[in-house]
Design a protein that fits this description.
The protein is of the alpha+beta class and 638 residues long. The protein has 21 helices and 20 strands.
Amino acid sequence: MLSTIIDRKLTLLDTAPEYTAEYELAVCGLGTAGSEAAIHGASLGMSVLGIERLSGMGGLSTLGCVWDYYYGTDGGSWEKWDEIAVERAKTGYTLCYPDPDERRCYPGIVREYVLEEKALELGVTLSYRTTVTGVFMENDRVTGLRLLRGGRQFDVRTGCVIDCTGNASVCRLAGCEISYGRDWDGAQMAFSKTIGLLTESGGMPIARGRYTFNGRLTDPSEAEYSNSLLRAATSPPNLPDQLSERFICLGALPGTREDAHVVTLETLTMDECVRGIRPDNPIFHTFVPQDLSNVDRDHAYESEVLCDWFLTASMGRYGFSAAVPMGVLIPRGVGSLLVAGKPIGIDHDLSGGLRMQKDMKKSAEAAAVIAYLGKIHGCQPADVPYDELSEMLTETGCMAAEYYIGIGDLHEKTERGIRTPSKFPQTAEEFRRSLSKPAIMPAWSMPTVFKPAEADSTSLALWAARQLRYEVPGETVELRDALHGFISTEKCGYNFAIALGLAGDERACPHLLEMIKNPPAVTPGEYPAQIKAICLLGRLGYAPALPVILDIIEDNAETLSRDMPCEGYLRRRGDCVSHILAFSLFAAHHICNAHPELRDTAGDRIRSWADKPIEVNAGWFGEDVSGDLLGIAERCFI
């Protein structure tokens, strides 16, 4: 059977294949992940077909002009090719970083050349400008591919296929289940369009990529996708006549930070990572930033853990470890198929961090080894012996357990990027010292973000308080009691109320409500405590707060937002209003869920509010987001 897509619908055709060639491994997409999968698979002795719709290897790291990339963790077979690229870049090419030995930036043309050279040396058959149009299936197992190149259609037989397309296009063709974006509305991270420029550093010519955010793509139609790319390509900085630097090239593909995620045998979540939950079968360990590109600044629509990380605890300058399990590479319900790169089985929250080039290469190396072990053992990917997989990945440095440290300072300068675990407060006195000052949100434009993290960090204390909700209540009574007592006795008492609320302790509620009625002053760089209070009151289902929250909604947040500083994260008045209203609407919904008898009265007031015109300009582009706010009212109350 041929599985293909006709008019955006998965269609099964009773079509017999006409195979012209056979390969033990087919790698679809030769970008950041696919290049490594093809090269490593061939280095293990498999016959490999590499399929790419563009005209070269490397994807965003070469043709996409994203040359400067410094997050992710070292270790893996790909480091050999980067070493060659560094040395070759010194032989007369324009560099993209003053010191190439720092290995954070590689000229795209050099890396592309090295990848292709190594692939051909190892015997990879490269098929550029080729599109996968169908998948041949037997007994829920992929057995071949239908390809289109230069107007000619041809079929190849495959032992195993690795989907490295970035948007899971092969998995879609095979009928795999796909998930999109966040739970509320499926929205994904913003994409960007990058161009290459010739700049200067210390009198030395430097080739650099430059980009700006261009909105979101959420399972777009062909027309929506084309129109989005056209808008991006005709907006700054993609306008050569408006540049002061010399224009080199336009990125050949968009920087989609997040696309579809394949539903796999295992799904790794951010919540599991930040709680220190580790799988039994990791394929690599990494340390990631939570770099979710939410240009609309609408974190109220995100998950609880993501909202708390960014806003309530202001943990932006910290990263966290992830132990990535084998099962995230194996699509559920389809055999002889693997996935590597961004579409692996992780949730939307984690995709903000687990998308860095080095980590995508590690996922590809692991997928290639799984395909190899499946070949020599004559089994499906899910059944390969994990001990052999672990041994092979450890040998290349791909599965280096030393990168698993928990939560740490994202910008700590360390050998090979192995950071020091952050020290969380343990005693009441340590919490008192840490919470007696504002929690400042780091901004990438602030010079202090690259300085060592402060001792007695307020953010770490707020996050540690959040972790108390997972402890045995009886073992944390004294600490919770101390936090409650500090609310009325210590400087920044509101931080102690927020900490208690994050711990899930309802004694915080009266104090959180008071913070809304009489808001504390907002320190520059601090996310407003009164918005945190609204969020927590809703989460805790505190009924006495509902009338006050409804008043805020009916007032369109004008009074509560009036004295908030417009700088940093909330950089315009509309951002403040948008956050207050969104969190208030969700809080009212949660309170009514906890107290159903209140829903009719609250619903009447919110429906009346929704009938009146409102305009709120917010986010990166300053666009009207009132439709999103009314959408909350519609889904939750109307």
